[in-house]
Amino acid sequence: MSAQKSYNLQDSGVLRFPEGFVWGAATAAYQIEGAARDDGRGPSIWDTFSRTPGKVHAGHTGDVACDHYHRYPEDVRIMGDLGLHAYRFSISWPRIQPDGAGPANPRGLDFYDRLVDELQGGGITPIVTLYHWDLPQTLEDRGGWTNRETAERFAEYAAIMYSRLGDRVETWTTLNEPWCSAFLGYASGIHAPGRTEPEVSFAAAHHLLLGHGLAVQALRAAGASQIGITLNLAPVLSDDAEAASIVDGLQNRIFLDPVLRGEYPADVVERAGRFTDWSFVKDGDLEIISQPIDLLGVNYYNPQTVTGRAGEPANPVYPGSEGVAFPGADAPKTAMGWPVQPFGLTDLLVRLSHDYPGTPLIITENGAAFDDVVEDGQVHDVGRLSYLDGHLRAAHAAIEAGVDLRGYLVWSLLDNFEWAEGYRKRFGVVHVDYNTQRRTPKDSALWYREVVRRNGL
Length: 457
Ligand code: NCW
Prior knowledge:
The chain is an alpha/beta fold. The chain contains 15 helices and 13 strands. Helix 3 runs parallel beside helix 5 and helix 7 packs parallel to helix 9. It is globular. It catalyses: Hydrolysis of terminal, non-reducing beta-D-glucosyl residues with release of beta-D-glucose.
C-alpha cells in the first residue's frame, strides 16, 4: 500500500481500548470472491436472484465481484499493511457442497485452506462465518430455510468445515444476520430467494435458528472453543412504547431470546399468530437453539425510528407490524439512506449486556456506504471516516459503562457487491475499481491503521 497520507492522531491517550482488543475488517463470500463457476462451485440463491430481471440494480451479479478468489494474496497483504489483527470472511457453502449435501468438493476446501494459510502467514487471525446468505440453490429448490432439513444440512456442512480448518481457525460464527435471510428473503423478497410469503418467514427464521443450534452442537463436538452467531440489531427509537416494543420484538428479541434465553418472546409469538401456528417448533428445538455460545456478534448500522399510527399496513420486512409507521430519523444519512446515529451503538451494547448478561460481545460489522471518488490515486472519504470515528467513540463509551466488548470489525475491507444495490454502493475502506480490479486504500483505511496501531483514538 502506498503511503498517500498519514494521519497523526493526537496521542492524548483519552480513548484507549482495552488491552487485547481485536481490530479487524469483514467481508462475505458472494460479495467479493467472484469465480462463480470455478473449481466446481455450484449455484447459490444469489446467482439465481441476481439473474432475475429487476431484482438487483442494473442486473449486477457476483460473477466477478472483487475477484478475491484469485487476488486473495494481494488482499491479505493490504490487511497486513493496515495492521489488522483479524479478518472475518464467510465461506461459500456451494463451493464446498455444490448441491448443498454430500461429500465436500476438495477444490472448494482448498481455496479456504490457502486463504487461512495466507492469513496466518501474515499474522492475521481468521474469523469464519459459515453462512452469509449464499444458500446452495438445490436446497432452495427443496424449500430453502422454510424446510427443516436445511438446518440439518447446515450442521453437516459446519462439521465439514471444522474438520478442514479447525486446526487453524479458533473463532466460528454460524449465521450472519438471520433476520435478513428470513424477512428480506422470504417476506419482503428484497433479497434472495425473493419470496414474498410472510406466512412462511417465521418458519424460515426458526429453521435458521435451529441450523445455528445444530451447528453449535456439531462444532462443539468436534472441538471448537469460540463459537458465536452474528445478528443485525437495531435499537428502536420512539415516542410510542408499544410501537417500539413491536419492532424491537420483530427485529431483535426474535433472535436474541431463543439463542440466549431458550424461548421465543411471548409478544412476538402472538403477533406472528396471524401468519402461523408455530407448529414448526418441535420439542427440544429451543434447547438446541440455546446451546451456550462464547461470543455474540453484533452488526450495528443505525437505530430504527418508529411511531404508532392507526391503520398503517405492516412494513413488508416486519410481518405483523400493522399500526407502526417508519418516519425515518432527523439525522444525516449515508448513501444507503441509513441515518448516522452513533449513540445507538452505545445504547445497544449497554442494553445487550444488561438484558443478556454473560456473553462477551464483538462488533462483527459497522461501517457506511458513501459515493466515493478517486482523485489522483486518493479517496477522501470524510463521511466514512467521521462515521467510523463516531461509532468507535460510541463503542468506547459502552466499554466505559462496563460492557464486555472484545473487538471491532469494520464493514467492509473492500468495496463489493452490495446485494440488491449491486456495485453502486461502496462500503469499503479500500476502494475497488471494477474495471481494473485496482485496490486503493481510502483515507478512512489510513486513519483506521493509526487507530489500530494506537489501540485508540
Ligand atoms: S444489506 C445489509 N448489510 C450490508 C451488507 O453488505 C452486509 O453483507 C450485511 O451483513 C452491510 O451490512 C449488512 N444489512 C441489512 C440491510 C437491511 C436493509 C433493510 C431494508 C428495509 C427496507
